[in-house]
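Anyone have tokens for Leucyl/phenylalanyl-tRNA--protein transferase? Sequence:
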Amino acid sequence: MSHDIFLLDKSPKFPHASLAQDSPNGLLAVGGDLSETRLIEAYRNGIFPWYCEGEPILWWSPDPRCVFLLDGVHVSRSMKRELRKSTYQVTINRAFKDVIDGCAAPRAKEAETWILPEMKTAYLKLHQLGIAHSIEVWNAQELVGGLYGVSIGRFFFGESMFSRARNASKFALIYLTHYLKKNDFILLDSQVGNPHLYSMGAVDMSRDDFLLLLEEHISWEQPSYLWQTKTLDRWSD
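Reply: yep, here.
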């Protein structure tokens, strides 16, 4: 059953995510701003912004939701060999701005990016507040891949990833999920599925189940050391 699309005013509050449209799937609200207060409120309630240049800010909560259960990431035998022998170094929060720039760069199969300048500015502010984080993959001193997202409670809400070298974005994803699992997280949210994510082990979860998990785990207080800049231990699984 479809509902009306809500027009946001100055209040950072959102309508309940269950009121999102059936078509287009998950469209909940239009307008508002990308202030830190509104973005945090959105993520805490299973909502995220996604729009292109020339459009108003669009807010989404799709059903189903694409997620990685942290023990369900698919690491093939060949990928395990790559992880063991690779000289890549993987870090946390060493180069957030460079990662978001890499994610926003033009791609061969995509005519435009949704990571507009105002989106970059907004997520850089969240990073400065200790809420948005990056995973970097390095070949010597060259940044060859990475991902970024928002982390609140026991959730990491993935936003985008990029790769400039073979398997670099896969390294970022695998290392991140391993790190999240080790630190008692529940899942990595990938928002909307695609063949690449599903090939890595992503699954669809109903919006109702996703929102129930959020309600249960979003207020968990993350340890202060969790997102300090660091180099992650080499893969040993």
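The mean pLDDT is 93.
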